[in-house]
Amino acid sequence: MSVESTLPSRRRDRHGRYHAAEVYRRGGIRRRLRRRVARSVRRLVLVSALGMLGLAVLGAVGFCAAAFIGARLATRRVVVEGRSMVPTFDPADRLLVVRLPRRWPLRPGDVVALTDPREPDRLLVKRVTTVGERGVTVTGDNPAESTDSRTFGPVDRGEVWGLVCYRYAPRARAGLVSRRSPVRT
User: Fold this and answer.
1) Which of 15, 29, 87, 126 has its CA at a distance of 20 to 30 angstroms from the CA of residue 152?
2) Is the pTM of this model over 0.85?
3) Buried b (16+ CB within 10 A) or exposed e, 10-35
4) pLDDT of residue 45
5) CA distances, 34 to each of 8, 28, 44, 98 (Å)
6) Which of 136, 178, 177, 176 is nearest to 159 (CA)?
7) Of the candidates 70, 72, 89, the residue with the CA atom closest to the CA atom of residue 81
8) Is CATH 2.70.70.10 the classification given to domain 80-176?
9) Span between the terminal Cα atoms of the chain, in Å
10) Cα angle vertex 83, ends 81, 86, to 5°?
11) Residue 114: strand pairing partners
């Protein structure tokens, strides 16, 4: 005779499971429910944590992408081609130009990139000499070789694309661009 058959409270049905009344009486259903709820809660917590982590990663990626696209739209790299800004810039210097809002106050001495009034597809790098109601007067640091406001007159503020803020090449001369005008000889 087996031990199970001697226990009257351990009756099994034809599938080998304990009888429902017996399982309930012994607390088996409650235990199973607690386990299921605990498993469900753990899954829910894990899924929520992964969801929040995913959102954080997506947010960070989105922020980086927006910053990258914003930087690409708000900056421009320019290569100096002529000698109009010598000694400040030599030919082949590479500059970083930051886009300025329309209401940004320009001051004499600022080095700016502006649309060439004669060729709209071309950018000029010049120094602001005066800012007035009629427009912005710009000149090159090398007047003998510069085509500037002496030739085409004051330019509209809307033609000023941005402020030259950094020279990144050649590496030996890399650095921030000064507002001070060089001494002319």
Assistant:
1) 87
2) no
3) eeeeeeeeeeeebeeeeeeeeeeeee
4) 81
5) 27, 10, 15, 62
6) 136
7) 89
8) no
9) 119
10) 120
11) 124, 160
